[in-house]
Amino acid sequence: MIIIKSETEIKKISEACKIVAEILDKLKKYIKEGITTAQIETFVEKEIYKKKALPAFKGYRGYPSSVCLSLNSQVVHGIPSKGVKLKNGDIISIDLGVLLNGFYGDAAITLSVGEVSQEAKKLIEVTEQALYIGIDNAKVGNRVSDISSSIQQHVEKNGFSVVRAFVGHGIGRFLHEDPQIPNFGKPGRGVKLREGMTIAIEPMVNIGSPDVMILEDGWTAVTVDGSLSAHFEHTVAITKNGPEILTK
Ligand code: MF3
Ligand code: CO
Q: How far is the CA of 197 from the centre of ligand 1 (A)?
């Protein structure tokens, strides 16, 4: 069931989204060689509580942490750890959701640590571009798969592959609502996009094969071939004036 939001509800979602965007922005400066992913989580939690919000992911289906930190060949849902130190040349995907006054905001970015390879740089660039191309297609009159196919085309045109095992989603009073927003597929399929829909669009892109597997911790998704993976996500409202990025 797709839940259409009123302007007041979109306002509330955007307040949660603003906190997510601000914290991700602060992390761009905080992330550097030598810090552990556990330190990043501590930093993120403090920022969330400062804003009187709650971490959306902690305890969600048993996920143990307030933020997903996925390094290199990890695709999504990496768990912060005291034993993992960032090193020069790493790429790190940071996925963050918060709950504020009954509404969720959700976004992700991928950052480089120090100097990364040309290939890694291109992967990050293409994944972010794919997100914005998908967002451009999140407009009234289009269908869900117009978003999906535009993302897939951009990624594959650049020689990379889109992950199929995880998808974007509606968002609002729940972290995950209908409809699902895949990052692949033929255009012109799925439900029609309507004013008042709020969705999280989140391409996950691998350099090699699109296939992923889950590690023994039950969460961390990694590429099967060990290739690098990047992830970008925005929460977006579909309005009569076009897509509005709420996690900007
Ligand atoms: N952005 C991800 C999603 O929408 C994060 C969920 S992670 C979980 O699925 F840990 F909360 F499951
Ligand atoms: Co999401």
A: 19
Residue 21's pLDDT is: 99
Can you give the pLDDT at residue 10?
Answer: 98
Sequence ranges of the domains in the chain: 7-245
Kindly give the parts of the chain with pLDDT less than 50. none
**Rounded distance, CA 93 to CA 109, Å?**
6
- Which residue type sits at 223? T
Q: Is the Cβ atom of 234 under 6 angstroms away from ligand 1? A: no
Torsion angle, alpha carbons of 85, 50, 19, 9, to 10:
140
Q: Is 106 in the pocket of ligand 1 (CB under 6 A)?
A: yes
Q: Please list the residues that pair with 234 across neighbouring strands.
A: 201
Q: How far is CA 39 from the centre of its chain?
A: 21
* Rounded Cα–Cα distance for residues 70 and 52 (Å): 26
pLDDT of amino acid 118: 98
Helix axis angle, 144-157 to 118-136, nearest 10°: 160
Residue-level pLDDT at 120 = 98
Please tell me the predicted confidence (pLDDT) of residue 74: 99
For residue 189, what pLDDT is reported?
97
**Number of the ligand 1 atom closest to the C-alpha atom of 65:** 10
177 C-beta closer than 6 A to ligand 1: no
Q: Is 230 a pocket residue for ligand 1 (Cβ < 6 Å)?
A: no
Model pTM above 0.85? yes
For the domain 7-245, what is the CATH code? 3.90.230.10
CA of 90 to the centre of ligand 2 (A): 23
**The pLDDT of residue 59:** 98
